[in-house]
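PROTOCOL LOG
Step 1. Enter all chains and additional molecules of the complex.
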Amino acid sequence: MAIIEVNQLTKRYKNGTTNAVDGVSFAVAAGEFFALLGPNGAGKTTIISILTTTLAPTSGTAKIVGYDLNTQASAVRQNVGIIFQKPSLDLNLTAEENVRFHAILYGLYPFRLTYSRMPTAYRQQVDELATILGIEKDIFKPIKTFSGGMMRKLEILRSLIHRPKVLFLDEPSVGLDPASRRNLWQYIQQVRQEHQTTVLLTTHYLDEAEGADRICIINLGKIVSHGTPEQVKAELVEEYLLVDATDRAQLRAELNSLHLSFSEPADTPHLKIKLNGSTAQQIIKAINTPLTVLKTHSPTLEEAYLAIVEHL
Amino acid sequence: MIEFNSILAIAYRDLLKFLRDPVRIVSTLIFPAMFVILLGNSFQGMTTDYNFLTYVFTGVLAQTLYQSTAMGIISLIEDRENDFSQEIFVSPVSRYTIVFGKIFGETLVSMAQGASIILLGILIGIPLTIQQAIYLFPISLIVCVAGGAFGVIIMANLSNQRAANQIFPFIMFPQYFLAGVFNPLNSLPWYLHILSLMAPMRYAVDLIRGVFYLGQPDYAHTVLQHPSINLVIVLITFVIFLMVGTWVFVRGERNR
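Step 2. Run joint prediction.
Step 3. Record the structure below.
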């Protein structure tokens, strides 16, 4: 069952001359890790803002956990958690106060003036959270003193305390150093495993998207490619073998008899064999002509992605 | 119940923010003190049938309560720019709850300021009976929330903090005079009289004065109309400003 259903979603900003999001449709299954990948300005944040009900679409519909975005906004909000691109912690408050504020707004606990008067269940939850973050001592300190990575983690933990079914992450690793970034990803994976949370991630980093179950590449508000990382790769990336032999005529004849399509493009002195679905091993196994050159070309998604983004 | 708890939480956050900002605490008290001491005393030589210092004091008390709450509401714009309001606006609570929590929070802040102004008044010899203080308390609360609703309708039509900082003084400053905070309103030319009737702060100031001077000989010289009439006007404008303002604000947020 699809937990997120997006149908022909379109958004044109008030002063815009083009559509920031242009007829986008996709579905995300429960528990899936779905990545919206695209360069800056592709429309990723616009889509997230619409799906989290803070922005009205110009046209199109979307359902989250079965609730319609336009008519059941409150039910949608109750079921989703969001990590925004820009930090959304209140710097005037302590870590615990930020968490308490969130818990009350989501109706988990009644309002109390101080931490000690909050229900035991809440205090336990905060204790656990502080342990995960390793900030048992600093949980009651103003978060101004926290590092960027720590704040991000706190935001994620905060967004999870109401047990959202869908977690939106809008470029969550922007501004983090490599170690914090890795740490963050490990943590997100852990969250997915423990809570079976559906994750919708936007990113312009390919390596972050490659770990997703499915990728949707968007550019200029439109979907360019959509599928598993392998499918997207197959669709976008041309995989081929470069071969050569001392007796090139024999090689050509053999390739023809094997019905392998090949070419001799100008950019390489060798013969180029498109894989077309078969594996490099299958092809090599079939060739008997002694080869002098054998190169496999399997570009990364990054190369394919850059090719698309630059093409358009 | 969620809505009620959320109003308290949003309000508490505002109060905490105020209490943790010593510079803001001091600066919010300097202006009223300046107005009362400098203006009230410098015009004391003027021939009036009543104590002018007390007149200015009551005006400044009302103006501070009204304006401080209104200005506090504008901080929703700041929240939006700091992206903290995203956290509030994606939560399942009603948008009216958010705005109402904000008004309540800023009311608490203004009431703290109002208490300090009253203390200052007592120090400089403003006659204040316990009965007056008891009457002033609920009326001050009403003036604060009315100022808050006024803030909502102004904020709803402003796009960013810069615009707010530039436009807000133009909306507030003329009202000091149109509402008669430190000037008597009984000899205004007709066009200013019309503008004065349109200034929402006028009714808040007159309401505070009406309650303060109730049963005193200066009442006839200082109060424009009976507090009950002012109360009705203040409450009606409160409801209209709050409803329309919130609606426009939420619409503006979503329909960018």
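Step 4. Note key features.
Chain B has a mean pLDDT of 87.
The first helix of chain B runs from residue 2 to 19.
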